[in-house]
Amino acid sequence: MTADRTAPLSAAHPPQPAASEDDPSWAGLRQLTAARIGLRRTGASLATAPLLDFRLAHAQARDAVHEALDAARLSAQIASLGVAVLTVASAAGNRQRYLMRPDLGRRLAPGAEAPLTSHTGSYDIAFVIADGLSARAVQTHAHPVLAGSLTVLQTEGWRIAPLVIAHEGRVAIGDAVATLLGADCVAVLIGERPGLTAPHSMGAYVTWRPRAGTTDADRNCISNIRPEGIDYAAAAAKAAHLLGAMRRRQTSGVALKDDSDRPLIGAPAPD
């Protein structure tokens, strides 16, 4: 039996109740995600409160992309960990060109090689901090993650190159830095692309034997480093674990899997 085509739309498709932020059926789901779910609506539109919240998050994400890195303050923080700190710039030159020309953010500026070659040596690892697409991410998260990672690596006898802060840098700029310093591997801490729930998230990219032509398939990434995501202690532990495995196996990227959580699988539940 076919439906009556002359029946009013409201009869064939009765309106569904709008989701409400006060609806208890959404409460459990909201505990599992920071995503915006079950938002109140007025007709087909978002209610005023969630709409304003969305616009605020969007503005914060846009601001994060354009915010400048305070390299002097960050350098002082890192120096307190007992490592030398160098500052270089990418070939982008300014923020607008950096955003428009990603390729320039992967290369060092003319003349930037000099302060690096003056520190060339034989190192196990070079750390690079780049502002990426969220300077505040590395401004906030780089120091505590480095503090945890360096403690482990120094205990294990790693030869650590002077740390490099790269203005307007992207991940691949670490390849050139490590090559000039003479490091076997590189760890790049960089501000990730801002999102509507995480405008200040940091990523860590580690690469064995970085060189010109290194691709993303040759790297391992720890993403979403922030107190609400992968916290500082967990990020430092993962980085140290990956670096140790990288040095033992002489490889990185798709050939090296992060099994740092494997001991937890099958472990007896805590009392």
Spatial extent as radius of gyration? 24 Å
The CATH class is identified as Alpha Beta
- CATH topology heading: Rossmann fold
- What is the domain tally? 1
Which second-level CATH architecture applies? 3-Layer(aba) Sandwich
- The run of helices and strands is HHEEHHEHHEHEHEEEH
Measured as a percent range, the helix fraction is: 25-40%
List the uncertain runs: 1-18
What would you give as the CATH superfamily? Ethanolamine ammonia-lyase light chain (EutC)
Most strands sheet: 6 strands, mixed
Span from first to last CA?
61 Å
- What is the tally of helical segments? 9
**Amount of beta strand:** 15-25%
Q: Which structural class do you get from the secondary structure elements?
A: alpha/beta
Relevant terms:
271 residues; 9 helices; Rossmann fold; two-stranded antiparallel ribbon; 6-stranded mixed β-sheet; globular; alpha/beta
Describe the secondary structure blueprint for this structure.
Elements: H1 9-12, H2 27-30, E1 41-42, E2 45-46, H3 48-66, H4 71-79, E3 85-89, H5 95-100, H6 113-117, E4 123-130, H7 135-155, E5 163-167, H8 173-181, E6 183-191, E7 202-208, E8 219-225, H9 232-249
Parallel strand pairs: 3-5, 4-5, 4-6
Antiparallel strand pairs: 1-2, 6-7, 7-8
Helix pairs in contact: 4-7, 7-9
